[in-house]
Task: structure prediction
Amino acid sequence: MSSKYETVVGLEVHTELKTKSKIFCGCTTEFGGDQNTHVCPVCLGLPGAMPVLNKQVVEFAIKVGLALNCEILKFNKFDRKNYYYPDLPKNYQTSQYDLPICLNGHLDIEVNGETKRIGITRIHMEEDAGKLVHSGNTISDSNSSNVDYNRTGVPLLEIVSEPDIRSGAEARAYVEKLRSILQYLEVSDGRMEEGSLRGDCNVSVRLRGSKEFGTRTETKNVNSLTAIQKVVEYEALRQAKLIEAGGKVDQETRTWDDAQGITLGMRKKDEENDYRYFPEPDLVPIVITDEKIEEVRQSLPELQDAKIARFVSEYGLSREDATILTMARKTADYLDAAVKAGADPKTVANWMLGDLS
Result:
């Protein structure tokens, strides 16, 4: 893209939580299964069915919020987000709006040897929607679509970043770091290929040096690190070319066509007031005590950044090797266990990076 323009990106990352049952009912969250078999009157939104909040979802949300340096709102509530789409059986999604569980956090990423802080606006709890099964490769080239409601009601956290990301590489590094933290906390398996972690990429461009944001597009449900980087790079280039040709960027929702390596327009992007949010009348507000927050804080594991620093200072590893060995918690724990059993840290690290890998 021309150096005349600057890319501005905000990411909304949705992660399915690793609970055994759904957020408001007792149906299993297990991946797979025959279509429409992991459902009940509550997650299908049948008349008279009443939701009951899964306590573990709240505990997982607090854990993620603390790990991402957020303020935990001790009084928060659920709201109804009203919109019609075939994979939403109730015609609204139970989510959080003005009082989410977490606010004002941050995450530090490293790109090309430089550390950058990405602000996190909010984290909120919500239920997942169902899944459309298209007859073609994408919704754009399909003659028909069926809907599978097994995923409906699976607990989600939506982690919303500030528009602090400036490139596809930064977007990829942010999601990669976020996935690592979620896996360390054991609240999500982070399997992007199964849809348990996916990102909505909000991309705009502006003249370099300008303080005003350009019109943004939102590319939904991008489910690989490579695709997230490509979406940002493609969409920024497309918008810059459009502006240079005298055109205007439409605020719209788009989809990623991985085979062609392009984004495609889907529909006009809704504004916040289009969703007609109002408090969920069937769920009481959530009150979290200081004691509960401290209890969760004490349960947090040593996260990747802390492990990297310790492996460098205590084990004498290079930062590059320590970073690779701590990407997955199990790998880092294996190195610790080997050293505790008497192995030389550098010898076992070299073996893990070479022969074992």
